[in-house]
Amino acid sequence: MTTLERIFHSVLFEALAITFSVIGLSMFTDHDLKALSGTMIVVATIAMIWNYFFNLTFDYFVKGEKTERSFGTRVSHVLLFEGGLLFFTIPVMAYLLNVNLWDAFIMDIGVTIFITIYAFLFNLIYDHTRVFIVQQRQVSV
C-alpha cells in the first residue's frame, strides 16, 4: 500500500468506527448524538495515540520478527492494548457523558467488543475490495 492509501484506510476505518459506535451507543443509552459523537471522536483520538506509544513499548520488550510472534504473544498484545486503552478512556467517557465510572466501563466494554469485531470485518472487506479494484485497474490498462 502507498502512504496515501494507508492514510485513506486509516481515515475510512476511524470515520466508520466513530459513526457505528455513535449509532450503537445511541440505541442503548439516553445520550444525545452530539455528546456521543464528541465523546467517540475523543476516544478515537486517544486510541490512535495509545496505539503508537503502546506498540513502540511492546516492540521494545518483545524482540524478534513480528511475523514470527506466537498466538499467545498476539493474544497478550491485544489484551494489554485494550486493557490500557480502557484505563485511559473510561474516565474520559465518564467525564464527557456525565456518568459514573461503572456506566462508562459498561459502555466502553461494549464499544471495545464492537470495535474488535468491526476491525476484523472492515479489514477483511477492505482487503478483498482492494484486490478487486487493483485487478480491475490492471485489466483496464
UniProtKB/TrEMBL annotation:
Concerning Pfam families, the annotation shows:
BTP
Record keywords: Membrane, Transmembrane, Transmembrane helix
Q: Where is the Chlorhexidine efflux transporter domain?
A: 1-61, 69-130
TM helices/strands, residue ranges: 7-29, 35-54, 75-98, 104-126
According to the lineage, what is the superkingdom? Bacteria
- NCBIfam families, from UniProt? PACE_transport
Q: What is this protein called?
A: PACE efflux transporter
The root-end lineage is: Bacteria, Pseudomonadati, Pseudomonadota, Gammaproteobacteria, Vibrionales
